[in-house]
Amino acid sequence: MSLVMTAEKREAFLAEVHIGVLAVEREGRAPLAVPIWYDYTPGGEVLLWIERDTVKDKLIAKAGRFSIVAQVETLPYKYVTAEGPVVAADGPPTEEQALKIAGRYLSPSQAANYVRGALGERSLLIRMRPEKWLSNDQTGALDDL
């Protein structure tokens, strides 16, 4: 039994609503690994909305790449990791992009209020093109135990 997901399944899983874990290298220390909201459409780019001049922004800019992990923390366990280069980090997200990211995690009214309060000049949309993937799906692995 293979526990590795097909390309189609891993992309669909990453597109589901999960709190992501952003991982980016840092010199002289362990990689920065922090929870983050994100957006992803199968076949597309991973979108992050962060603030300029933060630790995340500086490290991503320096590394030019990052990875993101999405997981299920209950049986059957599943995870997907996508890694790739930053293809753009050139300005704030549009209101529509910000609402799409926030709307994955909040109700429509909460997302609208969040975007109204958080979207501004310090906002930055980062786009990453996944090139390397890791995945694991424990569905069925425990059936015979």
Brief overview:
With about 140 residues, the protein is α+β, with helices and mostly antiparallel strands. It is about 25% helix and about 35% strand.
- Compute the number of helices: 4
Name the helix and strand elements from N-terminus to C-terminus, one letter apiece: HEEEEHEEHHEE
Distance between the termini: 14 Å
Counted beta strands: 8
Q: What oligomerization state is this entry in? A: single chain
List unreliable stretches of 5+ residues. Answer: none
Structural class per helix/strand content? alpha+beta
Task: Compute the CA-based radius of gyration.
Answer: 16 Å
The proportion of residues forming helix, as a percent range, comes to: 25-40%
Q: How would you sum up the global shape?
A: globular
* Beta-strand content estimate: 25-35%
Mean pLDDT: 95
Profile the largest sheet.
Answer: 8 strands, antiparallel
Provide tags for this entry.
145 residues, alpha+beta, eight-stranded antiparallel β-sheet, 34% strand, globular
Structural summary, described in words:
- The model has no long low-confidence stretch (mean pLDDT 95).
- This protein starts with 6 loop residues before the first helix and ends in an 8-residue tail after the last strand.
- It is an alpha+beta fold.
- Helix content is 26%, strand content 34%.
Topology:
Blueprint: H1 7-15, E1 20-24, E2 32-36, E3 38-39, E4 46-51, H2 55-63, E5 65-72, E6 78-88, H3 95-103, H4 108-118, E7 123-128, E8 132-137
Helix pairs in contact: 3-4
